[in-house]
Write a structure and sequence with these properties.
Elements (H helix, E strand, L loop, with lengths): L7 E4 L4 H12 L4 E4 L9 H8 L4 E4 L13 H22 L2 E7 L22 H16 L4 E6 L2 E2 L6 H9 L5 E4 L3 E2 L2 E2 H16 L6 E4 L6 E2 H11 L7 E4 L32 H8 L3 H4 L4
Helix pairs in contact: 1-6, 2-3, 3-4, 5-7
Protein name: dTDP-4-dehydrorhamnose reductase
EC number: 1.1.1.133
Keywords: NADP, Oxidoreductase
Length: about 300
Amino acid sequence: MTSDTARWLVTGAAGMLGQDVLAELEAAGIEATALRRADLDITDDTAVLAAVSGHAVVVNCAAWTDVDGAESAEQAATAVNGLGVRNLAAACAATGVRLLHVSTDYVLSGDAAEPYAEDAPTAPVNAYGRSKLVGEQAVRELLPQSGYIVRTAWLYGEHGPNFVATMLKLAAQRDTLDVVDDQHGQPTWSRALARQLTALGRAALAGRAPAGVYHGTATGRTTWFGLARESYRLSGLDPERIRPTTSEAFVRPAVRPAFSVLGHERWAAAGLAPLPEWRDMLGEALERPAFVELRP
């Protein structure tokens, strides 16, 4: 079985990233099984083992993603993001399948001054981050040679609610918008991440990619304020309508990391380039019909 004839499994296939992964696999001529939340409960170990069997690569896009909700339901979040991932990793270990698990910058402390390396110490500051770290630990433990943890952050795309879409929708409702300017990160287009995951999976099947942690975020950095302004500028809107404010103006149940800038050194080990610069991928994304339709 070659990397181009192997069948892949995508969990969380109805989500924003899951849909883009399926589109990229189809474009690459790779056959894939798409399982939505209704099709597979990853907290059911028996169902997970049956689903994984017969595949060569699993791309896990299934997750509890309600960051604020996890603060009052950490056990439920950890059941999905921790136990569910352990089930997938155990099934992959039992069947010789490679696992590409999508994780998050929230496993890090968010108080650095320089980009986080892939081997930086983990220290989540909220329940969601803790739940995702449990999943990462399971992949490391059970799949030391065939488990790939791809951390992403500030994800936006065509197939789900996200910050960029919200900003464009609000342009038709408000003259000005106050946006946080003291959180730093790397806005990442889900379709670009899907391409990277596809490339990584192929490299893994070909024996070219070492297992472990990779950072699947755009290069460069900005703030939410900077992202909103650039989204407006590229959409033909006046960026001056976006005004800076601080995190104190938008208190949320879950603490957000102030610094979510990740380093990308490990991609070279897999023979792959990091994701593009954030402005470049944003420009490409905003030309997609779903975003063009949101312009006032």
